[in-house]
Design a protein that fits this description.
Length: 327
């Protein structure tokens, strides 16, 4: 499998009369991003030219989420924005990667949505839940069931593609679904009276979102990734500042085809992580307040549900030094 490493290849060019030797410019970093507020946020920096101002040559390419993972695995990307659990899935499948940046954690945008009459997870005992087995909503459901003194054996899972869950719930095939925004919101709008019965806001840190990069490109472009982290901190400040938030939301909404009011509502369910907060998240620990602890939980989940067979060495997937070195 060929993998683009982003190494700098110098090409000597001899100018006929001057004998001058020039080096060809290295290719830009190539990153995949998709429809999640913590990643759509990069559109603000793209549109405002902050990446060029920071002196980092980078190309962002828009993907459907799963397609971005496939492109990274095929060596077509230097890095990809994914959940911390899916970084493990890519690595276990042979696409080695290391996290250099934590963008956010889901704070309500991942939901278990019940039909009218379902008020709590306990009401789902003996009932059907449409969910994409092995993905993060499955992990979220198990977390909620445990807190409700239930197990997966108390419900029946109906394997459903996340983007199809709104129709699955509206059709009456199931009593609840698991989905992230915008699919969770679509499910609520598609069935009057449907509402969340458990969300990621009740388990902050269960689902972190990160930039996972090829280790070879990290070795060759550490300075560029450091600049990207600085730009990210600028983005977070701009979005969170009441004076500039509306401008940021308008840019983000335009990228995904929603109105600014619609997008502002979705943005609330994602907790963007500044560099100051990321330094705390990148301290090793067992709980959800640590990326290490959360990722270990994701690894246990992936192995238990046969997403992959062998446990992954979580520490090898996380490179905190670039963030910790930020002022």
């Amino acid at each position: 499998m060929l993998r683009r490493t982003g190494l700098i290849f110098a090409v000597a060019v001899i100018v006929a009369h001057g004998g001058l030797t020039l080096a060809a410019a290295p290719p830009p970093l190539h990153l995949g991003y998709s429809d999640w507020p913590g990643w759509v946020a990069w559109q603000v920096a793209i549109d405002k030219g902050w990446l060029k101002e920071a002196g980092v040559d980078v190309k962002f390419e828009w993907f459907d989420y799963s397609a971005s993972m496939e492109a990274f695995a095929a060596g077509k990307l230097d890095g990809d924005f994914v959940t911390n659990g899916d970084a493990l899935v890519m690595g276990a499948g042979g696409a080695r990667n290391v996290t250099v940046l934590v963008t956010d954690y889901s704070n309500g945008n991942d939901m278990i949505v019940g039909r009218p009459g379902i008020h709590t997870l306990k009401d789902l005992k003996g009932k059907k839940i449409g969910i994409e087995i092995g993905l993060v909503e499955h992990l979220l459901l198990l977390d909620g069931l445990k807190k409700s003194a239930m197990t997966q054996d108390d419900v029946t899972l109906v394997n459903s593609k996340t983007n199809e869950t709104p129709q699955v719930l509206a059709s009456g095939q199931v009593d609840a679904i698991g989905a992230w925004q915008p699919n969770s919101g679509l499910a609520i709008r598609a069935l009057p009276g449907a509402h969340p019965v458990y969300t990621s806001a009740q388990s902050p840190g269960l689902i972190y979102d990160v930039l996972a990069v090829n280790p070879a490109t990290l070795a060759a472009h550490r300075a560029d990734y450091s600049k990207l982290i600085k730009v990210w901190d600028h983005i977070v400040s701009y979005i969170n500042d009441p004076k500039t938030q509306d401008d940021a939301v308008q840019i983000m909404a335009m990228r995904v085809g929603l109105s600014p009011p619609q997008y502002k509502q979705i943005l609330v369910g994602t907790h963007l992580i500044s560099v100051v907060e990321a330094k705390k998240v990148l301290v090793k620990g067992d709980g959800l307040g640590s990326l290490y602890g959360s990722t270990q939980i994701a690894d246990d989940f992936n192995v238990h549900n046969a997403v992959y067979k062998q446990p992954q060495k979580v520490d090898g997937y996380i490179e905190p030094s670039l963030t910790l070195a930020q002022p």
